[in-house]
Hints:
Elements: E1 4-12, E2 16-23, E3 29-35, H1 42-45, H2 49-56, E4 65-71, E5 74-80, E6 84-85, H3 86-91, H4 99-118, E7 121-122, E8 131-134, E9 137-140, E10 147-148, H5 167-170, H6 179-194, H7 204-215, H8 230-233, H9 246-249, H10 255-264, H11 275-279, E11 310-315, E12 325-326, E13 328-329, E14 339-342, E15 353-356, E16 386-391
Antiparallel strand pairs: 1-2, 2-3, 3-5, 4-5, 6-8, 7-10, 8-9, 11-16, 12-13, 14-15
Amino acid sequence: MERYKILKELGDGTCGSVYKAWDKQTGEIVAVKKLKRKFYFWQEHTRLRELKALRRLNHPNIVKLKEVVRENNELFFIFEYMEYNLYQIMRDRQMRFSEEEIRHFMSQVLQGLSHMHRNGYFHRDLKPENLLVTNDFLKIADFGLAREVSSVGPYTEYVSTRWYRAPEVLLQSSSYTPAVDMWAAGVILAELFTLSPIFPGKSEIDQLCKICHILGVPDLTVFPEGTNTSRLLSICCYEELSPANLSDIIPNASSEAIDLILRLCSWDPSRRPAADESLQHPFFHVGWIPYPLRDPLELKLSNMGAKPKLELKLQDFGPEPEDCFLGLTLAVKPSVSNLEVLHNVSQGYGEDILFPSGLKDHSERSVFWPLITPDRNRIQPPVESSLSLSFSSIQHPSLGVP
Length: 402
């Protein structure tokens, strides 16, 4: 350890203390974690779950272990240095994060979790303090409580900081799954919007009570066998609790964000989406609105045929279909050379629509149609184009909602 000069203490935890240090050989700044227990034999440390997990998990969103040093019966982990943790960033914020910033952080959390779970580990102590950040780049750290997915319970009763602890853990379940990490991810997502914990319980019972006040009363049959559900019965006014409107609690969150939080913070562990599935949620695939927008939502009635409920005018599309969508994918693709004219598409409105060759009508499964409007001479339009579309609300087959 003479190679490293300790600069300052960064934190002190149950398992060890973390220091900022300078590598005299390379001139690099590193983080040194000194474990509190003694290791009298070299073979002892090789059985540490934290070390086994760190050696196996090599991913851009998981903190990198550079070296392990044993000296005078003490064990040191040498990590890459990260400037802040997410808790510090939230604490020092003068204004709330934008949704784009939140998407950026959460996509990195979920990519790290996805890699971790695929490789057979779950973290069990996910919280803002264990999410390290440098230049908006995030890495998951502190694998002291990590376990193998294949391991068999009973598990340690204490895992994770109380505010981020999944209900099945609060109810003393003897076995649980990587879904405990997904619950914590949902709680962290909510906290990024509010800059304060959504379930700040003062005890385990109070923690359950605060969850019930927001999520409502759970179905006790959803919990794994061996779960101490009697803890829920001690909550005051248990029978009268009903779910709160999360949009009222987090008014600055979009409907997509609210939906993802509710899915991740499901009482039933089996209903929480996995990390890979969460990354496919609409929250992470919100399209940008083209600029400039003129009359984005101009409501008017048409005298021709059926009266539309909404007229949408969009101009200056990007060249790719995903560049512009609002419920219906709209795009002008001037580079398409092989086009087919389909007549009478507009049902008597006197306009034709050009579709790229080979494009089939998938309206029975989806309401997303790429559209290309020709001029009157059936000539492909120039790049600078616009589209005016009138439509009434319809029911999306897959979502079951208008």
